[in-house]
Amino acid sequence: MRETERLIRELNSDPDTESVLADAPMGEYCSFKAGGRADCLFVPRGEAGLLRALRRIRDLGLSYFVMGAGTNLLVRDGGFRGVIVKPGAGMRAVRVDGARVAALCGASRCELATAAATASLGGLEFAHGIPGSVGGAVYMNAGAYGGEIGGVLESARVFLPDEDAVVSLRRAELAFAYRSSLLQSLGGVVLEARFALAPGNGAEIRARMSDFARRRAEKQPLHLPSAGSFFRRPAGGFAGKLIEDAGLSGLSCGGARISPRHSGFIVNEGGATASEIIDLAEIVRSIVFDRFGVMLHPEVRIIGDDIDL
């Protein structure tokens, strides 16, 4: 803990620090509203502070994890031994330049899609209702309703820790696939993304966004804490359909439950622990595999330590 305490002192004296919190309750920063504590939660004001901190964390030999909006993240109840970095308000800018939109990593997907629609640029309508940040969307190639971030991304500026370098990578270099990109194997940190869009009719673009929002509200349990679809889509099918066909809709484990509205969602009905969410997911995985021979894999990123009993 000495290195962590030293880092916290240094970050507190850095003018580029928006906030730094020791023993941070990560359930308050993740959409599941569950999970353990991190040794340190650091929020930089801008890119310079982010890069300086990542290099200092490396020099001190500390573990770290760069999160987005916390909408696809669960920290185990034992917490995270290291530093969780969350881009701050100074890293949320979105700007439009002709038929291109550029966004810093901390901007929300809603802010990105809204800026595009305001400029009558189509292609990002699907992203409007997907919670999360632009950085996270590029990292995992987020998508919905037939659209994916990799389909409209032109390039991204990325920090590569192993090379200690900031590079610009074009779409083809990022090797996008379903819910994945090259960044996941490189451990890259998205700093900024640039999207090439198609000029269109602003009213029609906004109408498509409204339609997607309506469909989400009708089919998804948006009134309860969750991380969206918990599992990746298996080849040739849908996780929610397999879970429902296995008779698991509504199954609960403590405060965690398979949503009766959308079986692909695990929701926190009140007071769920990370362990209960993970245990429920494992029960589902086991039963679905036994029934259909399909192994489901989490889309949610799970980090940290289990509690020692």
What gap, in angstroms, lies between the N and C termini? 22 Å
For this entry, what is the oligomeric state of its chains? single chain
- Radius of gyration equals 20 Å
CATH-derived topology of the largest domain: Uridine Diphospho-n-acetylenolpyruvylglucosamine Reductase, domain 3
For the biggest sheet, the summary is: 5 strands, antiparallel
The CATH architecture of the largest domain can be named as 2-Layer Sandwich
Number of strands: 19
Strand content: 25-35%
Tally of discrete structural domains:
3
Q: Output the number of helix runs.
A: 8
CATH class of the largest domain: Alpha Beta
Low-confidence stretches: none
Q: Report helical residue fraction.
A: 25-40%
Main structural class: alpha+beta
Mean pLDDT: 95
Silhouette: globular
Order of helical and strand elements: HEEHEEEEEHEHEEEEHEEHEHEEEHE
